[in-house]
């Protein structure tokens, strides 16, 4: 969708492969976005990177920039060879077409703008979507009754002789509830970006002066017992019944997993489309469980995007006719 790339199979674990390099660049960027750098608090120490974070950031940026530059020039080459139009345009094709006549955009080099825009969409949509998918699968494995009910909904609406499609998602209300509940418990970014008060105001009984910078704790907000009963429990049914009208831009601000307003997550729409379809395909196509049936560890790791502390490892058993897997 972003750059016309799809990775899978054995190559994703080969250290010299593009897929392996991209996966690790995304993982490192997500981790670095949440680390504390001493020089940010004590600027005169910026000359000495004794934590090693700044050097790590520079290496990670160089790797990400190399991959994006390679993708962009592949797109330029295809356009020069007249290959455009032979397949559906991706996001990078659209950006190149928009800025085809411009060498600079708002004072920045055109190529820099294209790469930066693609990178932010990859990080905010692809990276956080993978993390949210891992949380959703972890919750479903630990709540097998919910998993079976989601599979039953898919069997009733789609059947077992064809794959669920994106156009079917609107009819899968329980699946939507599972994703909403996952995002309530584990928002993609538990802290919002920095906000600045445009006027004097009061927040939770505290006086906030104009110009004050604030960070909003979405993780805590979405577990508020004054709004949610059993706030730390995984209960998708709450979005199927009591909170069935709550959406991802809830103006009551009790549920805002992608933040709110003009500075909300840029990749929310793309990420939700991928998340719904990917989770639907996985639970439709496979029985999912852990080796020896152990409970999945739900400890949270470090990083701005709230990753799992320990990677999720699962066993997949096909539950559809074999010819459907061959057609993928």
UniProtKB/TrEMBL annotation:
Give me any GO biological process, just one: terpene biosynthetic process
Family annotation (InterPro entries): Cyt_P450, Cyt_P450_CS, Cyt_P450_E_grp-I, Cyt_P450_sf, Plant_Cytochrome_P450_Monoox
Q: Name one Pfam family in it.
A: p450
GO MF term set: heme binding; iron ion binding; monooxygenase activity; oxidoreductase activity, acting on paired donors, with incorporation or reduction of molecular oxygen
Sites where the protein binds heme: 265
Q: Does the keyword Ubl conjugation apply?
A: no
Cofactors that this protein relies on: heme
Keyword terms, alphabetized: Heme, Iron, Membrane, Metal-binding, Monooxygenase, Oxidoreductase, Transmembrane, Transmembrane helix
Similarity-based family = Belongs to the cytochrome P450 family.
Q: Which PANTHER family match?
A: CYTOCHROME P450 82C3-RELATED (PTHR47947), DIMETHYLNONATRIENE SYNTHASE (PTHR47947:SF25)
| Protein name from the UniProt record | Cytochrome p450
